[in-house]
UniProtKB/TrEMBL annotation, chain A:
This is Xanthine dehydrogenase family protein subunit M. Coiled coil: none annotated. InterPro entries: CO_DH_flav_C, CO_DH_flav_C_dom_sf, Diverse_Substr_Oxidored, FAD-bd_PCMH, FAD-bd_PCMH-like_sf, FAD-bd_PCMH_sub1, FAD-bd_PCMH_sub2, Mopterin_DH_FAD-bd. One of its GO terms (molecular function) is FAD binding. The keyword Flavoprotein applies. Pfam families: CO_deh_flav_C, FAD_binding_5. The lineage of its organism: Bacteria, Pseudomonadati, Bacteroidota, Sphingobacteriia, Sphingobacteriales. Residues 1-216 form the FAD-binding PCMH-type domain. Keywords: FAD, Flavoprotein.
From TrEMBL, chain B:
One of its GO terms (molecular function) is 2 iron, 2 sulfur cluster binding. The keyword Membrane does not apply. Keywords: 2Fe-2S, Iron, Iron-sulfur, Metal-binding, Oxidoreductase. This is (2Fe-2S)-binding protein. It comes from the Bacteria. Residues 18-94 form the 2Fe-2S ferredoxin-type domain. PROSITE patterns: 2FE2S_FER_1, 2FE2S_FER_2.
Amino acid sequence: MNNFDYQKAATVSDVVGKSTFVAGGTNLIDLLKYNLTNAATLIDINTIGEHHDILEIEDGVRLGALATNADTAYHPIIEQRYPLLSRAILAGASAQIRNMATNGGNLLQRTRCYYFYDPHAPCNKRLPGSGCSAINGYNRNMAILGTSENCIAVFPSDMSIALSALDAIINIKSEDGERSVDFADFHRLPGDTPPIDNNLKPGEFITSIDLPLKGFAKNYSYLKLRDRASYAFALVSVATGLELDGDTIRDVRITLGGVSHKPWRVKDAEHYLIGKKADRENFSAAADIILQGAVGFAHNTFKIKLAKKAIVRNCMMALDPSTQLPGAQPSA
Amino acid sequence: METESFTKTHQATTVTPRTITLSINGQQHALTILPYVSLLDALREYLDLTGTKKGCDHGQCGACTVICDGKRIISCLTLAVMKEGAKITTIEGINHPIQQAFIDHDAFQCGYCTPGQICSAIGLLEEGKVKSREEVKDSMSGNLCRCGANQQIIDAIMQVKGGDNE
């Protein structure tokens, strides 16, 4: 860890056009310890007077970028109207980390690929052109969808899997003004630029995340499958929101986590399901569409079958959300 | 442009230590430190409050858990300079029924994780969000116990929390 200077920001205009902001610090300070990020000056954005709240807005709900993950997950509006988001947040990290980590930071967290963290291993994300150690290395946790010959790392956020399913919008400020980005267009596939995780440009600052009105509060489920029941990153996770008319699907959202460099959502599968009966057979056919093009590596081919089964199971649980067990989710 | 920070090692600029005041266990402590000192290192190395333990130093074990403004946090992944004005409670400042419950249930062996477990348990009790034993286990998953006293730790928490031990 190299030394750095430190400043506290008072307003958003203190930070736009600059870089290396710290909020919760739960990923950034770890990256600094591993020398994976270097900052001449670290700017503390916790001291900014706004963007800490969860607010009702005309077309939905606005999540302040500086609200913590815990405060967001337990906020009455989120628990009641967006329980899918609440579930997904609470499936991630530990209680301590959720008390520190912020919503903006959650979207910007970096992969936990072990080769990315190992300074002695080639890694195109850490050192472009050095090669990918995961492709022919131990790749149990790695991606099966949207990979490139340069990188098979996975984006580890749980919160983002629900935000993808909810069609969230990310509000961004820069010296040039403000812009909003659809969640689907924020995170990137590795392609030939693995170091770039998302489309936030240098000098830009996430101020908030908007949730549209439709929250799927009646029929939703988040399923996270992992090597231990709690405090581990997903092997596969699934967020499902359903809108039903009797047993006919009127609207549906399905996003997969733990399988790609970005939240994996295939709208063709959702279109396929609309108007059909909400049953295993149709969910299974949709799962086949979602996993089209999936390619496994030596140790993670199991994820393809696991993801298909997880999608079906999670969609069935969404029919009756009370079937989701509290706390640790069973793995069977 | 975007890849620059990964290919180039910045020469750290000369940074001078600064004097900050931390509120710990109800006492104000002035200390002169560099910005990159974690809260954990500030407690242990600068203030001699060694009850808070360093396990992994990467947010994976929970041994460094302290209570900050009423919430349990890990002190290894925050900087001391970020906690000016916050009210921090460490194991040295705790007097809570959970401590007797840990003794009653033999909720430790070597004791290294215990300060973090106690702070985390108090955070859990004050948050009041979890009810069942399964939920308590999930909520304590950020604190590892390598001796394997987890069942007794959960027993101790359930006793203080009250309610159904299912």
